[in-house]
Amino acid sequence: MKATKKHRIIQHLVMPNSAFGAPQEMYVRTSNVRVFFHNKKLLFDKGSTATFDTFFNGLTIATWKKNCTFNDLQLRLKGEGRFILRFGVHRIGHAQKWLDESVIELKDGLEKIIDISFWQSLEEGMLYFYLESLGESELTEGCFVTYTPPRNQVKLGIVITHFNRKQYVLPAIKRIRDDLLNDPNYKDKINLVVVDNSKSILPEEAEGTTLIPNKNFGGSGGFTRGLLHLKDQGSFTHCLFMDDDASCEVESIRRSYHLLEFSSEQGFAVSGCLMRDVKPSILHEKGVEFRKGYCSPFKSELNLTDIDDLLYADRADVKINFGAWWFFAFKISDVKNFAFPFFIRGDDVQFSLQNNFKIKTINGIGCWAEDFWYKESPLTKYFVVRASLVLMIAYEDLSVLDVLKNIFSFFMSSALSYNYSSAKGVRLALDHFMIGPKFWLDNMDMSAPRIQISEFSTSEKLLPINLSDLLLDYPTLKKRPDRANNQKYIEIEHPLDGYPGKEEQFFRKAIRILTLNGFLLPSFLLKKKMVFQHKTYRAFYKDIFLYEKVLYEYVPTGLGYIAIHDKKEFFRELFSLMNQMYTFTLRFKALRSEYKQAIPDMTNEGFWRKIYFDQELL
Question: How far apart are CA 496 and CA 509, in angstroms?
Answer without folding.
Answer: 18
